[in-house]
Amino acid sequence: MSDFPWLSVLIALPLLGAVAVSVLPRDNEPLVKWFSFGVSTLVGVLALAMAAGFDAGGDRFQFTEKYWWIKEFGIHWALGVDGVALVLILLSVILVPLVMLASWNEDERSGGVDVPAKRSVKTYFALLLSLEAAMIGVFAATDVFLFYVFFEAMLIPVYFIIGHYGGGAARERSYAAVKFLLYSLFGGLLMLVSVIWLYPLSNKPVGEGGLGHGTFMFQELRGLHVDPTTAKWLFLGFFIAFAIKAPMVPVHTWLPTAAQQSPPGALVLIVGVLDKVGTYGMLRFCLELFPGASKWATPAVLVFAVISIIYGAILAIGQVDLKRLIAYTSVSHFGFIVLGIFAMTSQGQSGAALYMVNHGFSTAALFLLVGFMIVRRRSAKITDFGGVQKAAPVLAGTFLIAGLSGLSLPGLSPFVSEFLVLVGTFSRYKVAACFAVTGVVLAAIYVLWMYQRTMGGPKVPAVEGMKDLTAREKWAVAPIIAIIVAMGFFPQPVLHVINPSVKETLARVDRHDPAPTLTGNVAENGARP
Amino acid sequence: MKAEGIQAASWLLIALPLAGAAILLLGGRRTDKWGHLLGVAAPVASFAIGIAMLVQMLGYDDAARRRTLHLWDFINVGGFRIGMDLLVDPLSISFVLLITGVGSLIHIYSVGYMAEDPDRRRFFAYLNLFVAAMLLLVLGGNFLVLFLGWEGVGLASYLLIGFWQHKPTAATAAKKAFVVNRVGDMGLIIAIALMFSTFGTVDFGPILGAGAEHAGLAAKLSTGTATAIGLLLLLGACGKSAQLPLQSWLLDAMEGPTPVSALIHAATMVTAGVYLIVRSGPIFEMSDTAQLVVTIVGAATLLAGAIIGCGKDDIKKALAGSTMSQIGYMTLAAGLGRPGYVFAIAHLIAHGFFKAGLFLGAGSVMHGTNDDVNMRHYGALRGVMMATYVTFGLGFLAIIGFPFLSGWFTKDAIIEAAFDKGGTSGAILGACAVIGAGITAYYMSRVMIMTFFGEKRWEEGVHPHESPKVMTVPLMLLAVGSVAAGGLLILGGFADFLEPVTGKPEHAESFKWVTLPGIVVLVLMVIGFAIAWMQYGRRPVPREAPAGSFVTVAARKDLYGDAINESLLMRPGQWLTRLAVWFDGRGVDGAVNGLAALIGGTSGRFRRIQTGFARSYALSMFFGAALVVAALLVVNVS
Q1: How far apart are CA B25 and CA B149, in angstroms?
Q2: Where's it found, cell-wise (chain A) (predicted)?
Q3: pLDDT tens by residue, B477-511
Q4: Quick check: B197 and A433 CB within 8 A?
Q5: Rounded to an integer, what distance in angstroms lies between the CA atom of residue B326 and that of residue B271?
Q6: Phi, psi (5° rounding) for residue A78?
């Protein structure tokens, strides 16, 4: 089955599913839901089957496909995954069916707020499926132009989900959607310029640093020698687009607004997966296409990363809306991911790649549970809760575990990645690591204070009789919690897949891990304890 | 050397209580009926395995007593290679037995103490989780696995302090404990990162060496790096062990059920900092500065804790101040280096017995007085609670250092070791320790007298009664430990037993029964008791606390620890948060909105975009696509 076009199938399947959903009868809601759920589950199973055939010790890109798409412009339909892309695709395909499960009812899709007109169920599920296709495509694309196309294609379903299915008033919803779009289009435009610029650069003769033919193929572009000044401009084009997507301070403000207005299920995909494209893009494209410019920008990027960590965490502490709060915690966590990437050490970058996966699951659990809380209380305001633990202990307990994963408690998966990032950063940039580590304390404050105000304390009257998690809700959250715990103790299988890709990236930027400062022979003092 | 025989199954020690916790939490209400029995069985089984492991260890030569067990590869990235490794050596086995032994007794006691609580099963689940994490902490074979356990006990502590989440005070105390501990954790995290970038590993074996003949990499440390690592580790230790300046959470932690205070906040978890310092001894030994700071922190805390203990009318808080103070002694001893390690650990174990006994005794008193914690409402309880009185009394005698009881052996040893350090610092540290001993005698006598002697000052409707056997039998066993543990350890060759880990002191002195500091301490003990007797034994104790002197007021307010934290950290933090929220809404976001409006021509235009967003989207997509094609054409032609 080595020639089987796994990735094209994985992209086509949800897309065809979306088309099929849109022609299903409008009034048969269960059919729409079960069909969509079935399609996304099938995609998940297929992706897992593909992953089982991935050889971590083999070629960097596997399951590759390459066809001409627009020959005149040198654009290929070229797909393939390395370790980092593979785990991010797995993250996406695992989350989509669970999000569907959690978005089963109208009030769950609307974020628990009553909406005047009943909104189309099948459009929502069709949008989710088409978003899934775009997400798989963006991680699988090995042609930079194709990557850009998927990058922009993701915007469409998200834009409509925020604008149509959000919880707030129509005016606020569309404000959030437009803000999201403006930010993204602005970033996308900058990236587009850089992407297109690559073509004439590669078209230059080999002697002048080009490749002798115009192309957008990532693997070929890695061999490009761009003059330093141009490289800096191109780097910035990519980086700003990715920083907006990630999002980093100061271009983060679209996220809290979008988070507040979005349905919780869609938020899982926006923050859990979509935003990862930003950090994934930095690791893959910024560093590997413009290694010199990346090193040039490193000090500034590290500063912004540290600011994101601390500023995001402080803002999270100050939030009164649950969804906004978690959005700001993500700003802080994305700071860690960027820090790890630009620390340019294997621990930092492997940690950052793992962080993307772990943060995806961790925020997914948080957003889904917050969604369940909102449905019950019809409010996302922290002050509207209190004492939930007494009324709904399972909800409270799961929320606590999800929260603890948000503060990177050892034993839960985010700890491993956060620790790797800190260790990897410290070995090269000690001051940055020391500032970043304060995020550990701030995270404890925002998570535990949130838990205390919503779940602890005496029961407020409105919480009286709040029902605990239903079986369907449990099925939506339990797999995520199980993954968080399992990867907290056994992260090595995932790291094993990630490490070789990171090695390639580091080789390209020509950075090596700093050697231990103490020149003692470890082996002489005995093996591992 | 690899662990063999029963030691090869040392993972079971951790797995059993962990499984207990998992079953009780996932099983939910279905396990309510027998949950407490399973909860007790887990640590008892671990204790039995621990004993078997000790017996096996005693069969080995000194050099062969250090056994490791590699369970699985935890994290391998580049040179950062961390195994899920366990280390069984004399130090870890001592802790294993303390944790599972005292832990089992406290589990049994809790069956009675929590009998009325509807969530008793959950309580046992958390206790089991704690035992598992604590065992991981002491058995971890590298600093990262230690850190896993370190945070695990922090979680268990958080869950158990806040066990009665519906009480706002409990919820706040739990959060405070976790957050303050996290401040210490920053130190530990950076310490581990610094060790990795220095040594290229964080495994105990290569860094710390294996016994005296195998010096580890730590021996090659420069003084500066050793000082840095040492102080960072100390910061972590201060958080977990409630040492100055991170002490403020421990008194609030008394919001948790009393068995929790006994197990976690007296006998085991709070001593983890001492374990960390003793374990990392070879690093501290490379830096006089780091060691000196450790001793200063210890001495300051032992005095501060003792003074706080004097001012409290809440029996649990008085004991909590005492715990701070006693751990101060251990920290002081650990900072003294090789002469001190064994006394630190011996005092830690002895303290584990008598302080657990005292806390459980306090719990027994509360059990009989409708959960009243105010000692001014006690008095004359010796008549109605005989078993509690006797066992508490023995714990009391042990802690004040009554001759031949546990505390006399272990605390006096620390005081002497402090003087033996020599020089000005030795004299000052020794003097602090002696004064602390006097104050200890005073506040513990105060607790003892206010609770069990004098006149009845019981609240109306309270009928104090002795606790059931399931509670008093553990008290009796702990009392035996309070009496005998110190003597057995000091006279029974504990120093030789630990030597493979802690190393041989340059001039080890044999135990002396009579010493000058010992006599001074004894005199101060009598004076301390006498003052307490004059104040609380001969005069009636007022049911309302009198105004008190400046010192009393300060002690009642925990020496203004909270006030300092509030004005220096909390308030500024709140202002910073508010400022950031305001700035993010106005500053950053405002600028972006303004920019958007500018691009759109007028703010009115921007609003129009918002309303017709589907149409505008289609338009911008069209223009965007046209732009892309145009650009592609341009670069292709050129």
Answers
A1: 19
A2: Endomembrane system; Membrane
A3: 999 988 888 888 888 888 888 888 887 777 666 77
A4: no
A5: 10
A6: -120, 125
Say whether B610 and A426 touch across the interface (CB within 8 A): no
User: Cβ contacts (< 8 Å) between B626 and chain A: which residues?
Assistant: none
Give the DSSP per-residue string, A17-35: HHHHHHHS-TT-HHHHHHH
Measured CA to CA, the distance from residue A356 to residue A334 in angstroms comes to 8
Greatest mean pLDDT among A91-95, A195-199, A228-232, B558-562 lies in A91-95
What six digits make up the tokens of B248? 């403020």
Chain B residues in contact with A182 by the CB 8 A cut-off are 596
A492 and B172 in contact by Cβ < 8 A? no
Instruction: Please list every residue in chain A whose beta carbon sits closer than 8 Å to the beta carbon of residue B166.
Output: 387, 389-390, 456-459
Q: Which residue has the higher pLDDT, B594 or A308?
A: A308
User: Distance between CA atoms of A95 and B66, rounded to whole angstroms?
Assistant: 46
Report d(CA A186, CA A237) in Å as an integer.
10
Place of tokens 């659990």: A365
> Which positions in chain A touch B580 (Cβ < 8 Å)?
311, 314-315, 318
- The tokens of B96 are what? 């294993």
Per DSSP, the residues of B357-379 read HHHHHHHHHHHHTTT--BGGG--
pLDDT at B29: 84
Closest alpha carbon to A322 in A271, A355, A366, A269: A366
* Dihedral sign (CA A402, A404, A408, A410): negative
Minimal-distance CA residue of chain B relative to A352: B77
Distance of CA B354 to the CA centre of its chain: 16
- Strands B67-77 and A75-81 turn out to be unpaired
Q: How far apart are CA B434 and CA B531, in angstroms?
A: 17
d(CA B96, CA B67): 14
Q: What is the pLDDT of residues A454-463, one digit of tens each?
A: 988 888 888 8
Does A449 sit within 8 Å of B175, measured CB to CB? yes
Mutate to test the interface with A, among B613, B629, B633 (most CBs of A within 10 A): B613
Cα distances (Å, whole numbers) of residue A202 to A147, A214, A215, A278, B534:
17, 5, 6, 24, 94
Contacts of B171 in chain A (CB under 8 A): 452, 456-457
**For residue A271, how far is the Cα from the chain centroid?**
6
pTM over 0.80: yes
